[in-house]
Design brief:
Elements: E1 5-7, H1 19-27, E2 41-49, E3 57-65, E4 68-73, E5 82-86, E6 91-94, E7 96-101, H2 153-159, E8 162-167, E9 174-182, H3 189-192, E10 193-202, H4 217-243, H5 255-266, E11 270-274, H6 277-290, E12 294-298, H7 306-312, E13 316-319, H8 337-345, H9 349-356, E14 360-363, H10 370-382, H11 387-394, H12 396-401, E15 419-422, E16 433-438, E17 441-445, E18 461-469, E19 472-482, E20 487-494, E21 497-507, E22 510-519, E23 522-533, E24 536-543, E25 546-556, H13 560-568, H14 574-585, E26 593-601, E27 609-617, E28 620-625, E29 635-638, E30 643-644, E31 648-650, H15 683-690, E32 693-696
Parallel strand pairs: 2-5, 2-6, 7-8, 10-11, 11-12, 12-13, 13-14, 26-29, 26-30, 31-32
Antiparallel strand pairs: 1-17, 2-3, 3-4, 6-15, 8-9, 9-10, 15-16, 16-17, 18-19, 18-25, 19-20, 20-21, 21-22, 22-23, 23-24, 24-25, 26-27, 27-28
Length: about 700
Amino acid sequence: MRRSLVPSLSTRERSRLPWCLLGALLMAGTVHADPPAPPPYYAVKNVTVVTGTGDPLEGATVLLADGLIEAVGQGVEIPADAWVMDGEGLTLYPGLVDALTTLGLAQKEDGGQGAPSGGPSPGRGDPTIRGPEDRPRTTPWVSAADMLGDDRRIEKWRKAGFTAAVTGPADGFFAGQAALINLGGSSSRNRAVVAAPVAQRLNFRNPGRSRTYPSSLMGSLAYIKQVFSDTRHNILAKAGYAAAPLGRERPVYDRTLATLETDLAQGTPFLMPAHLGRDIDRALALAGEYDLPAVIYGGQGAYARVDALKDAGVPVLVSLNWPKEEKNRDPEADTSLRTLYHRRMAPAVPARLAAAGVPLAFYSDGLATPTEIFKNVRKAIDAGLSNQQALAALTSEPARIFGVADRLGTIEAGKIANLVLATDWPWAEDAEIKAVFVDGLKYEERVSDEPTEPPAMDVSGVWALTISTPRGSQDVSLELTMEEDGNVTGETVSERGTTALEEGRMSGDLLRFKTTRTMGPRTFTSSWSLTVEDETLSGFFSAGPMSMDVTGERTSGPDEDEDEESADEPKVTLEEMEAAMALYQGPAARMGAYALTHVTVWTVSGDTISDGTVLVRDGKIAAVGRDVKIPGGMEIIDAGGGHLIPGIIDAHSHITIEGGGNEGSLAVTSMVSIGDVLNPDDIAIYRALAGGVTTVNV
């Protein structure tokens, strides 16, 4: 169990404050002043340094001063007034970066985070949206750097080794400008900002507003394209006016277009949502049409588009919130092969992208705790990613993608002193974080003053809990796994979803842990204290000022034999999964040239040919007739007297349309395009082919 980290108190100030005076100031509660400054230097010696730029340095020293890395290497001279830490047996890593979050954004009055969605929206006292001119949910000028505030999650992320994050507003077609911030404890918000803006975040859907423009996926894409087209036009209009203003109407100022114009001029990346292969196709098409510097976020279906991403040179922010089976789903319900395939393939995406040389970084994507983040990093490693590649995806790659590789992401002299001192890779199950440096300030282990005893019993298994709430009782399932030393991991499962346990420990007969739930932009942390006796437990959980009673009983314990049997069961390999999907998707065979013989050909344009032959080459009909000469070596398909007709054309179809077949929010929608929302994975395609339909007008 990782203990919480708090800023360490310096034992020496730069002003060489005498020890006795420092102690007197600390004990005198009436003195109101800033905390003591850090020592002139921090030095970590005898440590293995994973720099992120080459092979690890053994027995090295890292010297920090003024928030920066002063020196790195073997034989570095340590100043006499440095605060020295002996790192023997430990490893120093670059500080981790969460590549896309809302960490650090101030709470709004309604409890949410970030900026309000832009543009008018019915139901909030605003006029009805008439079309793209009303700029629905569009706030590209909003800057995360201006929205920072208190966020309790920062300490949780930092004590796990995260020292920086890319944060920004998440709501809106043009949500706003992201900033890269350090996750220190400084009360100065400006001090936290490393760089801003580092990206402009886009969204392609309009959730929950079916009567508001745009109400469909194709309407949303049409609107985004319109804004980029308007930006292009505005750039040309301003240039023309600046060159010859006399007699011309001056361009009207539009802060949306002005912001996007600046973003384009500065090469600010545009973050585009794309989880599945077809989403990636849309994002790459949009980026290509408007020559946008794009970064994909989501990326869990990139296994189907690795080559396209490599050719486009587009980085991917991979969501660590891997797809999984719903906890409370109907056990009798069928799960499609495509869904099972996606769940299995998603964790393999990082390894595939890394092998192809596609830049990638990890982001938490709504995961409530670093415990969940690291668990899912380990899944990516199990699927083929190396520890070194995982480290790069959490350090140097996000720094490079967001244009700050010259100041953080690796351990090099002159860079920001964001570091993690640990017993192993930070995501390893048994890793202990010994210290974290953010901007050169040291945060170290806070040893709990609570008494600890050996666990009185093994609480592993499934427990059925009942919580007494002001609105009545609530049932919760608690799934626990306990180690011999009393560390407890697991999750709670209720009608509200699944939540991972944090800081779980069994001491004597007392079980304690925390849970954090994310509901929209809000997070809630609860502390649980439960006394276990045989197969029952009782206690309470508290969240803020509220405390509620909890009772429960164990419904099933750990079944070691079952675990051993399941571990020995052969698993379907990724290669086998891919082969099965290729067969499922078709075509049954890819044939360059072939001949159909002994077939009755209904030409439609002429006479019907009995016992005819049809040659096909490179996807086109090369010859039709009775006396067609078949080239040597060509594959022959004997139709055995069957009939051959032209493929059926469906002149009006709605298959393959994703996200709505109509933009119903406006009377005139000539700007939308079905071509933007075709779904090549639609099962209806295969059903149509089974009936002889080869072409549709959608």
